[in-house]
Fold these 3 entries.
Entry 1:
Amino acid sequence: MVDATLNLLQHAAMLVTRTNLTDLAYFLAIARHLNFRRAGLELGVSASAVSHALKNFEARAGVRLINRTNRSVTLTSAGKTLEQSVSGSFADIGSALENLDQLRANPGGKIRINAVVDAVTLVLGPVLAELARRHPGIEVDLVSSNRIVDVVGEGFDAGVRYGGTVPEDMIAQRLSADLRWVVAASPGYLDERGTPTHPDELKHHRCLGVRLGDDSIYRWEFEGPDGDFDVPIKSAMTADDSRSTLAMALNGAGLTFGLEALFAEHVADGRLRLVLTDWATMGPGFYLYYSGRRQVPAGLRAMLTIAAQLKPLG
């Protein structure tokens, strides 16, 4: 009986080796995303490496698992059967390894974060610096963009956005207090063109616009006696993010609209002045969000702990 059991265990170990766990991991990433580039982003390899691994796996298995065309990637019936059979087991393995990581004195691993540009400057900069000091084993891949992306579909562990733009099906945790939005310009520009006292006067000024992901220009938002309202501006110059318009405003190009916290140091040293402050409005703070259907990486948990301790923006 003992010999039979030993033989069975040895045979099972050989099957696992022949199956090639790495190829299975690649296959499951493709099955999740149905996109070789996104699967590669999750795995940290190129799309061609993913494709090559799949071809080798299919050759060894002797069956096609993925249908590939120039327009789509779909699972074959064999691929669907394999995905259903092994995905639960791999999820259990991932959870077990993640639980082990929680027991380490210094968690490790890699986390991928997609964040709106201003959040990187104002919140993630100090938080990630402290994360690096406390947990040098954690690797961070940060992509900053004002374009709204599907963080799960594009292989990110989490996203950081303004509260009002977080997808409803995500778990969200606040990273900052609510934020004040203001208009600013250099003293030189205001001396040359005058200081606006009402948002209606913006049409007579050079305004620096921010282009959104849908190519529209962001409408400047204000709060008056009758409540919140926004103003469409005719942009003298446009850019993809507030760092660019800030750089132009510092050099006298025109009025810029953005977070008061982003302008604070330049206001303090006299390089910028705030205008229309009586009309300034408050908006939702920054939130970190992630899918509740995945195990939260140890690195992400550590980052959230540090953010709660530091409170860069309150």
Entry 2:
Amino acid sequence: MPNFSSQRFSIAPMLDWTDRHCRYFHRQLTGDTLLYTEMVTTGAIIHGKGDYLAYCEAEHPVALQLGGSDPAALAQCAKLAEQRGYDEVNLNVGCPSDRVQNGRFGACLMAEANLVADAVKAMRDVVSIPVTVKTRIGIDALDSYEFLTDFIGTVAGRGECETFIIHARKAWLSGLSPKENREIPPLDYPRVYQLKRDFPHLIIALNGGVKTLEEALTHLQYLDGVMMGREAYQNPGILAQVDQALFGRQRPAANPVDVVRAMYPYIEAELAKGTYLGHVTRHMLGLFQGIPGARQWRRHLSENAHKPGADVRVLEAALALVADKIPQEA
């Protein structure tokens, strides 16, 4: 039986955003949230020169999102992911960018349900960790509810996929940029709710436009999970409430100043490897959103984190601009 709780709350895979530094930072705020890598193509993993599967043990639970359409290559990468200790492999069937379409993966695969099913089945045959699919509610003119249910039915049946994360907005594969595809056309939450009613045995999680934990709780009345994207990145402080509000943990929310200082050993280890401070701190800019001094915090980091020799002293100086303004109950 699938584990319905594992998808209860997650942070969306976001290209150029949810890298390993970002995920380590998010993990300081929430212990229960499922974290996702950026989408990694099968070609990069199999033929690339770098280690595209690198992550830190502290990130668990963490899922690898794959981009690709060749079942054999996807199976090879899924097996590598399991060997490296990832908790889940997710297939991207939602990204609408031209670059992704040219590689024959992402949202364009919604039009090829049998291929997606074969890809998922190929991965499931070689791993024991969950293999999940992140998709849209439709693409271009293929946006009827019947089209969506046919796609889900095929991938769940032939592909034996048990978990779907549904971005509740269809994708336009031509004429709109990826940014516009995040805002046009409107979201259709009821369609995702209906999908869960029609496929009660599947894990159905929702993605798209979720900005508050109150909204997440509303969606969880109808669905098995909620995936938060840009809001979790731009306002990461919201994540400090997740374990308590969504998972029923009794531990107090992490204080943002403590979170920053908890990053110091990780940052110092990364600096010793040659990582620039700004590559880590860029993910931390929004931590104090809504607190007096947040702008000065962001400005100090933005102006100083990329300077030669920048280290945790830059963070300490930035904290001095905001730390005394945090309410005691934070």
Entry 3:
Amino acid sequence: MNQTQPEEELSLEGQRELASLIERHTRTDGKHQSAIPSLHLFRASCGQEPQFAIYEPALCMIAQGSKMVMLAKESYRYDSRSYLLASVHLPVKGQILEATSIRPYLGLQLNFQPDQIVDMLQMPRSGGEAGNHSSRGLAAGSVSSTLLDAVIRLIRLLDNPEDIEGLAPLMIREILYRVIQGEQGATIKSFVVSGSHAQRIAAVIDRINRDYRQRLQVHDLAKMVNMSVSSLHYYFKEVTAMSPLQYLKQVRLQEARRLLLSETTEAAEAAFQVGYESPSQFSREYARLFGQPPIRDVNQLRHRLSRS
């Protein structure tokens, strides 16, 4: 006679299956684009130095190992029993903490669009009330058995690619529904409720990420969302843990680093391409964020990548 297994045992089995699935589809270390466009898989066989990145709105989960993500001066550590939820684009620094060749770090990132969350709001029992408050754009939560099950079923589709087009959108919809029903439901909803403080800050963040090369003025950004400059500063810092100008600076510097690393671009040219008017100011701020001047930093990164 079949007996119902305890919740903890089911969860452990699910974590093992999730790890097995990700490991099968990531034979080498690094970030892997899956056959599902919004799903990325990660593998690392050793701990890493902190990596800078711009998080898109996404659900991040770990099947094996642990990771630390830093937003400004705040730190978020999560592992296989927790998830990280980014509701807006955020410049962060991440570091894999637990990973070995025998037991590699295995994780996933499922990107989503605000419209998908708006669509969820039409459903009954779609989580707590959002309210007109401003929430942190990065939040951690506990993985429930229902969320884990939905994620496993999505990744199983990678073994049956002919089913992806028809079933993946339905499974992603279920995953987002589970997130909205969970402890961070009100947080993620606050960023899509029209007129809320969080939604207006999200609009400013989108503008900065779209037009960071231009000369952006804080008072123009405040006017765009019908806020005073002081209100914009206050609520922007509530969401991102930094001021609008600090955020803009990080977006520009991370893009400049990407240009320098991927192209034969001079430091001064990269500075102009991302919106700086003064190469010397660019070099000072680059060294402040990344620890050393642009060319030295990029040469060190290239040397490190060539050895990996």
